[in-house]
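TL;DR need structure tokens for one chain.
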Amino acid sequence: MSLPDELGVEWIEGEHEVRERLEELSFFTRTSLFCVHPSPTALYLRRGVDLRFVHERRTLGDPDRLLAAGARVRVLDRRLDPLVVIDERVAVVPIDPEDHARGALVVRQPGLLTGFLRLFERLWNEARELPEPGLTDDDRRLLALMASGSTDEATAHQFGVSVRHLRRRIARLTARLQASSRFEAGVEAVRRGWL
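>> reply
TL;DR here they are.
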């Protein structure tokens, strides 16, 4: 459906079309990506961008992909309607809150955008941080070996796993620490008292 350009609202019909538009918009994200109950598979996530996600606790699933990209994730125990705000300049909301597959509105109109930003901030402030999963003895041992300068091959041998498996585990620990490198992970682990 076409709307006059001066309204600052684009109407997109169909789930596939919405997914493509979200991918396109998020690909060019420069500063921030704020999402309520999003479908992260349709979004490009990158470090250096303020990534904040609010999810319904019952539908959160595994937040590893979000955390690995450096996102901050919070949860609420109630139903949430999807909202994506990109660079505080564009918002994407469903046409029909009861049937998200119908399509979405891409909003650039400043008055509406201000309302969506306020809504996101209110939900963000109301939501609770994800509880940090407990650190296992193996996690502590791995962090200590990383800090000592042990090679991946030597560390993998000590754990009895492949180097590839070890590197995935290191990546998960690094993501949990919201670090972009192993060095940063070590610094953050010390700051949190994990080492």
